[in-house]
Design a protein that fits this description.
heterodimer; A: 338 residues; FAD/NAD(P)-binding domain; five-stranded parallel beta sheet; elongated; B: alpha+beta; Ubiquitin-like (UB roll); 14% helix
């Protein structure tokens, strides 16, 4: 059981800045995120795209923004629990007990949900009958590439994940690459390599095809792929890998008894608390009249939510507002020596 | 004001007046059209505002910009007439446009 003042769900820019705001008022926090890296949508969806509306930062990319925020909170030595999704929360007198899908448990006096549009999960095939094969022969990520040795692997997708795995697995497996159009969107070097492997007969490529159906009982025997012109081709395969990027799902948050408005959580604008005492929501996931889904709004929301957490963490103390420019206490929390 | 017809995935058809300059996605979200998620808010970064454009309209629309086809790779059941509705800016030329919403966005 990890004890902390506040648990933050979501390591996007808003969650990261909230770590800072909690830190300067003397509260501790831990951060959980379902992605394997810090930065949320900024890192997953647009790491290289410039952002132009961060106050006092005329231009930066999603990756630069994330790195700068990490630099700003470095002094707090925050623990990040990546690849973990918060599944359950439970109130125990004045504390919240939190459990992740990996079994990590937290005890916190407050929770700040900074989860964007929910947790990132792999996009799946749309074919209905495949569900029972998912996690066995149909996979959306590679955990142990040894299972593919000397097997036939059919890879769907046109981005870097699909291309990289096609190249990698072609060393030890029979690889068939299927994509819905002729153009691949991965790095040019990978596209060239895949085409070269095709010339050498090491990879088969089918474009303008998508998965149509799966044949087999307990095990997949073969799959049928369908061309844009409706013609069907049968492929005997042992494994099917799908790389269609990630999608955001609200997930377990919907089960926690919080008021929901579509996929957002209504909050008050005084401290961004939800209908549950001690649970706050900030950033894209919260809603209130006039809400703008901007990073800068999330920073403001995080600053106020952090103050909202104070009374739960230190019920016997009075919160006192201080500036970073003048307060000795705040400066010492920031690790600044004078 | 241009009228856009949204064919929802539950079989309902809704005709919405969408002001020029808004996107077909915004027209849907602001009018509670079912099945357009628009998770990224119009940044062409998520492919959850995916629609099928009625065939007679498909060639009349402005061509896809770089990146839209890449995002459509990730959409749920993309077809030849797939577009991201956040990239379709409403104008008088689009008056009468009909779009169908896929069964899911992902």
């Amino acid at each position: 059981m990890i004890k902390t003042d506040t648990l933050i769900i979501g390591a996007g820019p808003v969650g990261l800045f909230c770590v800072h705001q909690l830190g300067i008022i003397g509260l501790t926090c831990e951060v959980v995120d379902n992605l394997d890296k810090i930065g949320g949508q900024c890192i997953e969806l647009y790491p290289d795209k410039p952002i132009y509306d961060i106050p006092a930062v005329p231009e930066c990319t999603g990756e630069e923004l994330t790195n700068n925020l990490l630099e700003q909170i470095k002094t707090f030595k925050t623990n990040f629990h990546l690849n973990e999704r918060v599944e359950e929360i439970k109130q125990d007198e004045k504390k919240w007990l939190i459990k992740t899908n990996k079994g990590t448990q937290f005890e916190a006096s407050s929770i700040i949900i900074a989860a964007g549009v929910g947790s990132f999960e792999p996009r799946k095939f749309s074919t209905k009958e495949i569900e029972k094969y998912e996690g066995k022969q149909i996979l959306y990520s590679v955990k142990d590439k040894k299972i593919f040795k000397n097997k036939t692997v059919t890879i769907f997708g046109g981005g870097d994940s699909a291309l990289d795995w096609a190249i990698e697995l072609s060393n030890t497996s029979k690889v068939i690459l299927v994509h819905r159009r002729d153009d691949f969107r991965g790095m040019q070097a990978s596209i060239d390599k895949v085409n070269q492997l095709k010339e050498e007969g090491k990879i088969e490529i089918y474009t303008k095809y998508q998965l149509d159906s799966v044949e087999g009982d307990d095990k997949i025997e073969s799959i049928n792929i369908k061309h844009d012109d409706e013609s069907i081709k049968e492929i005997k395969t042992d494994y099917v890998l799908g790389f269609f990027g990630l999608i955001m799902k609200l997930g377990p948050i919907a089960e926690w008894g919080l008021n929901l408005d579509k996929k957002t959580i209504p909050v008050n604008t005084e401290n961004f608390e939800t209908n549950k005492k001690g649970i706050f929501a900030i950033g894209d996931i919260c809603s209130y009249p006039g809400k703008l889904k901007l990073i800068l709004s999330g920073f403001h929301e995080g600053a106020l939510a952090a103050r909202g957490c104070f009374k739960y963490a230190k019920p016997d103390e009075k919160y006192r507002f201080e500036f970073t420019t003048s307060s000795k206490t705040v400066k010492s929390r920031l690790g600044i020596k004078e | 004001m241009p009228k856009i017809t949204y064919l929802e995935n539950n079989g309902n058809s809704k005709i919405i007046e969408v002001p020029n300059g808004l996107t077909v996605m915004e027209g849907a979200v602001q009018n509670d059209i079912q099945g357009i998620d628009a998770d990224c808010g119009g940044g062409m970064a998520c492919a959850t505002c995916h629609v099928y454009v009625n065939e007679e309209w498909f060639d009349k629309l402005p061509k896809k910009e770089d990146g839209e086809e890449d995002m459509l790779d990730m959409a749920f059941e993309p077809k030849k007439n797939s577009r991201l509705s956040c990239q379709l800016i409403v104008s008088d030329e689009l008056d009468g446009l009909i779009v169908s919403i896929p069964s899911k966005q992902g």
